[in-house]
Amino acid sequence: MQHLIRTSDFSKEEIVSLFDDAREFLKFEYNEVLKGKIIVTLFFENSTRTRSSFEIAAKRLGAEVVSLDVGTSSTSKGETIFDTVANINAMKPDALIIRHSECGLPDKLKDYVECPILNAGDGKHAHPTQALLDMFTIYEHFDGQTDGKSIAIVGDVRTSRVAGSNKRLLPKFGIDVSFVSPECFRYEGDDFKTYTSLNDVIDNVDIIMSLRTQLERHNQVYFESLNEYAKDFCITSEVMGDRDILLLHPGPVNRNVDISDEMLKDPRNKVLEQVTNGVAIRMAALKKLVLQ
């Protein structure tokens, strides 16, 4: 049985096929390919965008969605997450979508289910559908011609599961990945180029992906305020100039911290397009996994 725990669960050929389905789903025409199927969502972390995107995707395919309230679930009464998932599995759902703060948990749950698991984010580790929708947005923008393109992922790369998934996926499509961040948020590894200033890369990139500064994932204070961080890392019209650069962000955007108000209105900004693409990509992923 195939799951979507990390982007490497799909080959490049499978991902391109996924993009073909997503392109059709962007027409948002009537579709009941998953009619009669039941999709369970289990979110142990707050989520608006990802959760609603998955639920809309499932419903657009004709599936029924059961969204479990983890605040009143058995885990709050002392039951382990493994027993909770085993009990849900005993009810015979057709897919389980889970988000949890523990890195690697979705992978550990595979032995407790008889249906596909879709990872909606696990700690600092991975967010595969976000990376897939990011890649799809890039792929469509460049008409599939992504070999030799370069991206700077800017911000809190150390704790970002979005950065973690994208650094693994984008190079499969020939995209050169580099990271830009303050030293305290620096990517720790030898595989990618790292910078501490946007000025070092701005003239050599085709894509910028800004990230949210996730202060809740740090155990110490690095900046007196987000405004202090924004002085050097906010994507503004002054930073972008007239360069032909695609601007992305996984959301939610901290306005005038991650991206300025002006740049959020700029046609080079594709944040809302990413949101739309996210529904189509999740529709394609659900179709692939549920009907396998």
Automatic annotation (TrEMBL):
<feature type="binding site">
    <location>
        <position position="49"/>
    </location>
    <ligand>
        <name>carbamoyl phosphate</name>
    </ligand>
</feature>
<comment type="pathway">
    <text>Pyrimidine metabolism; UMP biosynthesis via de novo pathway; (S)-dihydroorotate from bicarbonate: step 2/3.</text>
</comment>
<dbReference type="Pfam" id="PF02729">
    <property type="entry name" value="OTCace_N"/>
</dbReference>
<dbReference type="Pfam" id="PF00185">
    <property type="entry name" value="OTCace"/>
</dbReference>
<feature type="binding site">
    <location>
        <position position="130"/>
    </location>
    <ligand>
        <name>carbamoyl phosphate</name>
    </ligand>
</feature>
<dbReference type="InterPro" id="IPR006130">
    <property type="entry name" value="Asp/Orn_carbamoylTrfase"/>
</dbReference>
<comment type="similarity">
    <text>Belongs to the aspartate/ornithine carbamoyltransferase superfamily. ATCase family.</text>
</comment>
<feature type="binding site">
    <location>
        <position position="127"/>
    </location>
    <ligand>
        <name>carbamoyl phosphate</name>
    </ligand>
</feature>
<feature type="domain" description="Aspartate/ornithine carbamoyltransferase Asp/Orn-binding">
    <location>
        <begin position="148"/>
        <end position="287"/>
    </location>
</feature>
<feature type="binding site">
    <location>
        <position position="161"/>
    </location>
    <ligand>
        <name>L-aspartate</name>
    </ligand>
</feature>
<keyword id="KW-0808">Transferase</keyword>
<dbReference type="InterPro" id="IPR036901">
    <property type="entry name" value="Asp/Orn_carbamoylTrfase_sf"/>
</dbReference>
<feature type="domain" description="Aspartate/ornithine carbamoyltransferase carbamoyl-P binding">
    <location>
        <begin position="2"/>
        <end position="140"/>
    </location>
</feature>
<comment type="subunit">
    <text>Heterododecamer (2C3:3R2) of six catalytic PyrB chains organized as two trimers (C3), and six regulatory PyrI chains organized as three dimers (R2).</text>
</comment>
<dbReference type="InterPro" id="IPR002082">
    <property type="entry name" value="Asp_carbamoyltransf"/>
</dbReference>
<feature type="binding site">
    <location>
        <position position="212"/>
    </location>
    <ligand>
        <name>L-aspartate</name>
    </ligand>
</feature>
<feature type="binding site">
    <location>
        <position position="99"/>
    </location>
    <ligand>
        <name>carbamoyl phosphate</name>
    </ligand>
</feature>
<dbReference type="InterPro" id="IPR006131">
    <property type="entry name" value="Asp_carbamoyltransf_Asp/Orn-bd"/>
</dbReference>
<dbReference type="InterPro" id="IPR006132">
    <property type="entry name" value="Asp/Orn_carbamoyltranf_P-bd"/>
</dbReference>
<comment type="function">
    <text>Catalyzes the condensation of carbamoyl phosphate and aspartate to form carbamoyl aspartate and inorganic phosphate, the committed step in the de novo pyrimidine nucleotide biosynthesis pathway.</text>
</comment>
<protein>
    <recommendedName>
        <fullName>Aspartate carbamoyltransferase</fullName>
        <ecNumber>2.1.3.2</ecNumber>
    </recommendedName>
</protein>
<feature type="binding site">
    <location>
        <position position="50"/>
    </location>
    <ligand>
        <name>carbamoyl phosphate</name>
    </ligand>
</feature>
<feature type="binding site">
    <location>
        <position position="251"/>
    </location>
    <ligand>
        <name>carbamoyl phosphate</name>
    </ligand>
</feature>
<dbReference type="GO" id="GO:0004070">
    <property type="term" value="F:aspartate carbamoyltransferase activity"/>
</dbReference>
<keyword id="KW-0665">Pyrimidine biosynthesis</keyword>
<feature type="binding site">
    <location>
        <position position="252"/>
    </location>
    <ligand>
        <name>carbamoyl phosphate</name>
    </ligand>
</feature>
<feature type="binding site">
    <location>
        <position position="77"/>
    </location>
    <ligand>
        <name>L-aspartate</name>
    </ligand>
</feature>
